[in-house]
Amino acid sequence: MSKTLVQVKDLRKTFAVKKGFMGKKQDLKAVDGVSFEIKEGETLSLVGESGCGKSTTGRLILKLLQPTSGQILIRDEDITEYTDNQMRPLRRDMQMIFQDPYSSLNPRIKIKDLISEPLQVHTDMKKEEQYQKAAALLEIVGLDRDNMEKYPHEFSGGQRQRIGIARAISVHPRLLVADEPVSALDVSIQSQVLNLMQDLQKEMGLAYLFISHDLSVVEHISTRVCVMYLGRIVETATRDELYGTPLHPYTRALLSAVPVADPELKKERILLQGDIPSPVNPPSGCNFHTRCPECRDICSQVIPKTVDVGNGHLVSCHLYS
Amino acid sequence: MNNNSPFRIFVKKFTARKTSVAALIYILFLLMLVLSGEVLAPYGAHEFDYQSLLQLPSARHLFGTDEFGRDILSRVMVGARLSLTVSLSAVTFAALSGTVLGLLSGYFGGLPDRIMMRICDVMFSFPDIILAIAIVAILGPGLENVLIAVAIFGIPSFARIMRGSMLSLKQNLYVEAARSIGVKNSSIIFKHIFPGAFSSLIVNYTMRIGTAILSAASLSFLGMGAKPTDAEWGAMLSTGRDYIGRAPHVAFFPGLAILLTVLAFNLLGDGLRDALDPKIK
Amino acid sequence: MANTAEKILEIKDLKIEFVSKDSSLTAVNGVSFHINKGEILGLVGESGCGKTVTSLAIMRLFKDTNGKITQGGVYFKDQNITTVSDREMAVMRGEEIAMIFQEPLTSLNPVMRIGDQICEVIRKHTQKTRSEAMEIAKAMLMQVGIPRAAQVLQDYPHQLSGGMNQRVMIAMAMSLNPQLLIADEPTTALDVTIQAQILDLMRRINRDHGMSMLLITHDLGVVAEMCQRVIVMYAGRIVEQADVVDLFKSPKHPYSKGLIHSVPVIGRRADRLESIPGNVPMLAKMPEGCKFAPRCKYKMDRCEKEEPGLFMVDGGRQERSCRCWLMEEAVI
User: Fold this and answer.
1) B34: which residues sit within 8 A by CB, 6+ positions away?
2) CATH code linked to domain A4-316
3) What is the pTM assigned to this prediction?
4) Which one, A156, A243, B185, C54, has least CB within 10 Å?
């Protein structure tokens, strides 16, 4: 029975934005009451389109942003109000890999120093030892040892992403938050990096919080999936259940919208009308109701409760409550 | 050494521009004068020679002599030392203080940042010279006080520039990466962000030296800096004013020295800025 | 349905080079293909393969770069448009061939209202008055599924979402009723549900107006859904050309195979994705012989010395070719 590594309870993050030159301040509810857990060694994916809050959620868990309300627990330790200094020792166990391989590595620092930086912060290893470990890490991610003295601009996007991964795993974290780690890469390189991530997970028992908009990649790599829309989670389920029997109308529409690389596959297409609303001015009640093909009166008035329909499959929809 | 290092690329770009290289050579020559003391000067800076008053340039006195028979070439060389030591010290002090203030202010933001920016705004609204005169008026005349004045009014420009660099560099993803690793704030500022701001700092530094030399010379010219008998370019220019009609060389050579030196530092600054800019090939 | 007898666009042996003071880089070499009237042709490849450069060459949009067509030609309805005058080309752009790009916000003028931008295009090519042009603009916006067309005419691009802006781009492209639409990654920057709307719109336009399309993308899913025939490019060359069903069911070129098998497909579970080792070669350091050889698991000695030609492959639903020495033996 896997232990729970991360627990998130009713997490919220609101930004104050000013609209226009003289406009008044408005609230942007980037994350609006999100709850989930991540178990040791599993991959939980947060999937959704722009404005859904998945990247913000990832940053909240790592305390790169301060939550407005709610709780974050790491192995039952409540880190919600922790300061930078209190977080520092915990960061050894929680690392991040970023979407843009071109700006997540400091261009003025050599690879050997980039990879060994976490070792410098969290261990007592001497520089020599750190560099030896960094060289070994380079090989683990499939790059040559003699790249140590180079600078980031000498590498391709896929190679830089591997370097970022080497850096993240250097201190043997328990959790890796991966924010769209392959979205900026070419298709044939994406699979290289995904395979690497899966191999590392097996060898090191890593848990992933995998943030992505790409449903095909998410299906391939996830244990469980949370679908987000405008700051809320609309459905949570195991990978097989979410893709096999999606319940929420948004999940269904999302899955049917994904272009599948199989020309002979006949698909029932659910086309949503209209655009994704702005998170500054979200719809009332269930915030999907403006585009939902199954919308009823109650949907625009009451926020649906989250219901467990069995086997840990959670849905927030009036059709099921 | 790695052929692709940022330093190699910088050197290549800098040396491609002849004006920058010429400026650098001139400045190195001046620095050599400064370091060699008065050894290279053909005469003493205070060596009177009543037989050769106000002599035009000749073989014996390449720049001529002044109203006390002193060799102007020697005085200009000694003056280089005065001008450069004053301006280098003052600007270095301003750079150090301004950089620390600007970086910290930009990184942490909040009320201290806003206060500091308003103070800089106030200081910026005065022309450099007025500020310098005000400070010297409070402290009294003399080169040491000129140094202090130039140092103080140099701080806002560095603070502003470094704060601006900090605000833009702070947005980079690699800074967020450093935070997620758990790197301390001080390391983030000085290891990750400052190197990116370094080029702005260096460019501003060289430009401000030109300003400082001009300010120091101007204050001396106005009689608030060096004593009139000091071998300082501004002071020499001031006394040379009286002889413009019959012995223009007395004012010409110190004036030329000021012109060339300020020009050289500006050209050096331009060359550095372009060589450091990754967008210019 | 596609009228296979009539070709609307034909590219013959196109070579595009980027010429600078000391060197010239070949971005595209020996590219030949055609688009049939009414068909949607997919041009697939990863970054650096030359697909965007090829499309810019068709439209002759090289003026601000140092790209040049150094060999071959582009024929629109049998007319060689590589050699027509700039003025004639300007007429063709819009009236005969239109193009839409990935980022609608950079293609639309941010300081002009939508209505004015569409009118400008219409009035440049026709003799319509301003009010006539506005009527056409409004009709176009409604055709592309923008319900509040009258309102949108008065809006600025930044007031609209990405999906709406892309619809505006399509409306503008269609306003002069061109015969060919070139779409370069039209949905890459859009969210999935919005992408579905735009692709649906494009399919409708192709079906109802018979507009031929060249769809350039790196997304194999989009290709599978939209295109009838596909061209795969790698390192500035065409490596495979086939009917879409043939390509996905039995890709012939090792690169196509690698690409298709490295993409996760919803519903198809694989433990591990196949991947293509190595990286795309840089323009300045192209290998000798076959450009894909360094990464190819079927590589033979010959592949590193001689670049293979484009061999015809039998048995396809439509004309099929592959640039690989493995295909040299004729398939009966």
Assistant:
1) B80, B81, B84, B85
2) 3.40.50.300
3) 0.86
4) B185
